[in-house]
Amino acid sequence: MVVGALALGIGFLSAPNTVEEAKAMVADAHGHGGHGDHGGHDAHDTHADDHKEEVHNDQDHKDHADVHHDTHDKDYGHAESHDAHGGGHGDSHDKHLLHQLQNRPWAATYVAALFFMMIALGALAFYAIQRAAQAGWSILLFRVMEGITAYLLPGSVIVFILLVLSGLHLNHLFVWMDAEVVAHDEIIRNKQSYLNVPFFLAR
Questions:
Q1: 142 and 161 in a common domain
Q2: Is there a single domain that holds both residue 192 and residue 168?
Q3: Can you tell me the distance from the alpha carbon of 49 to that of 34, in angstroms, rounded to the nearest whole number?
């Protein structure tokens, strides 16, 4: 338990707080092994492009100059629009990456808490069935079932606390708790009478 608590604390402390930290973590995880190969390919491509430019004669440049000048203004406006769209998409991706990395320790804690709580609940159901059927189990086995079932109360409290913290937006485990997602998702927005924090905690 002590080792698990230490590992959990390290997980929360190592979670990134900003987009820049998330990018740095991803860069460190992927490493820089492929950069040399990319550099070689880039140099080769640059050399090939230079060679192609040299073989073009002056007449070709003159023929294309007027066309390029006429279409430059139109292409420039399109490029600005494309760059703006690409920038917005990049910001959204970076934010999603940050939330994903921040969710890792929360998700690990929630899954473990729910798993052991459900084991205790399953042991209680099995124990109740055996008692109702007056099964001839050894008293020692009944004590084991009772011991496992004893975790049901603290396990349920832990899961409930995690759900309350999720409702306070300390994590992003449940997508329907994100107001930005709900604002752009009509399906989730139409289910707000069911998918809301008070009703979720009451259930």
A1: yes
A2: no
A3: 23
